[in-house]
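[READ THE FOLD]
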Amino acid sequence: MTRNVTVGLDGSPESLAAAAWAAQEALLREVPLHLVHAEEWPTTAAIPMVGPEVQQQWADKVLADAADELRQRHPGLEITARRLSGRPAAALPVEAGDAEMLVLGSRGLGSIMGFLIGSVGMATVSATEQPVVLVRAPKHQDKGPRAGSGDAEQPDTASPYRDVVVGLDVYQSCDKILAFAFDEAARRGCTLRAVHGWTLPLVFSYAPMLEPGIQLEVGRQFERALSDMLLPWRQKFPSVQVVERALIGSPGQQLVYSAADADLVVVGRRLRRAPLGGHIGPVAHAVMHHSAAPVAVVAH
């Protein structure tokens, strides 16, 4: 299959927002957009419980309507569509096997919990080795180039895009995460904000009260480690402006706060084979649920 950006559609506002986001991403990458619908989506208000023939007709219409609308918006974009057999957690990762990324709609928390918050959605993300981007439906019409990019006003900068935020763990190799994040920032011509959240080990619980300089020194050590991690990528992507911050606090919370006005937030999940399926770490889990910005989950 030709390299593409693949997006899963289920007829919900969230999946349509994901398709709009994916179309812009396909244009940035100069690849086709591939719309897919898995036939055995769980029954929701968007997918009524009907017979297989009616269900297939409905799915074909969802794909055709979305493709027609996106072709009108982006006449130069090549768009293909396909109805898949099987459940999303199995069918979507296979279909996205040759794609540059898989894009899905997400309701997150604080609203009616969609399939992406349940076991099906988590299984889809954890079974997909390509980057998976989760997009919320915007609360209002976004006049910027990115549908579903959050609710903050578009800043007046040289780039029409907001910043890309990446969460890093200085104790782990993050090369795949950094490659994806720097590439996204370079394509947009925007700033990349690198964030590492940290807390003092339990052994130092009372140290700041006894020696106030300990917390400051630990923070400096994390800042140096973050700078060292970013240095080769700064050299590889000299056009990307990078802002780096080692912040004290929960990594998941710091990323959600930092990405409140971002165009995209990038997190990693470790490729780990478990008896009950793939694994999504606590930081990625927190950001997936609570970030208003689109979230790219990169397996590494």
About this structure: Residues 109-117, 141-157 have pLDDT under 50 and may be disordered. The first strand starts at residue 5 and ends at 8. Strands lie at 5-8, 33-38, 79-84, 101-105, 132-135, 164-167, 192-198, 242-248, 264-269, 295-299.
